[in-house]
Amino acid sequence: METKIVFHIDFDYFYAQCEEIRSPELKSKPVCVCVFSDRGGDSGAIATANYTARKYGAKSGIPIVFAKKRLEERKDAVFLPVDFDYYSEMSEKAMKIMEGFSDIFEYVGRDEAYLDVTKRTEGNFNKASHLAQQIKNSIREKTKLSCSIGISPNKLISKIASDFQKPDGLTIVSPEKIDQFLESLKIRDIPGIGKKTEQRFVEMKLETIGDVKKLDVFTLNKVFGRKSGTYIYNAVRGIDDEPVKEREPSIQHGKIVTLKEDSKDYEFLLENILELCKEVHRIIKEKNQMFKSVGISFVQSDLSNKSKSKMLRNSTMSLEELEKTAEQLLKEGLESQTITIRRIGVKVSDLSESQGQRDITSYF
Ligand code: DGT
Ligand code: CA
Ligand code: CA
To answer: 252-353, superfamily in CATH?
Structure first.
């Protein structure tokens, strides 16, 4: 069987990096991107933090109050609310570039993807290394984003490898290096192995992947059950035959603009909303897709977010329906609006392929 070459590409400190790109003055500061809960104040958790903030122990999943405590001495630390629409927009641009460099492209989530590049590299790891460098350069040039790439004959090892030298990493594990690469890594580095599984291994006095390799498949199956046991048995040996499956990130289409001036004036905002509707509709038409949900979003002058969406009765391609719905959402969104709005967006989701001449009126 010929050796496959699979890339796993993962953007570095993704949400926080997007914020740095939007506001370069943040680069020298600790930056935490926060999911503020509805309860107000500082309740909520950190979605991610840049590497400066991580040095102080501020990281994904911890409460915002803890992060603020840990960063107490850094008076310049910045805590920003998440702006998913903006991150999606950045992600989409970078994903398009990656897709262009792949034989098979599998979108995993906003910040990661697998690429099968076996054909275009002719299974040659040297060529693969050049290709990866080219992808990094192209993404950086067009979006300013940095990413880390893992290269190996399968998804499992590439995923581990992309995480091996972050940020801006490039880790190549050719077939003959697999054992050596895995040997000294922590068991926890295997995707899917969480705290609980790790704890069981600690109890068995096993710490590295090399240690676990000493266990036979029967022991692993007995301790973890057949499914997990077999997975672990193969994973520690670098065995994984999951193919890269074509998958595109077409979950939604959206457009967002920064307004000429911050405002909460209905007429002014409506004008912008209608313009965005036209742009979003252009994408939908081009892709021959129908949508069933419409959403609008505001980034308010204090950088907090607000969004509203509505599910339609039927899927449609109609610009008129898109505009009507967005207009209605805008009216609702502006009720009790106190602060002005800085950026405004429109998106459609719950997409489906339009199948031929279903209903001629739904095309316009
Ligand atoms: P890294 O280690 O440089 O890849 O850093 P990130 O931030 O890219 O980490 P990753 O790849 O695990 O996650 C990608 C994005 O997913 C991250 O920018 C924010 C989001 N995320 C990750 N963990 C959490 C979490 O615990 N809560 C929330 N709300 N979001 C998270
Ligand atoms: Ca990442
Ligand atoms: Ca990731």
So the answer is: DNA polymerase, Y-family, little finger domain (3.30.1490.100)
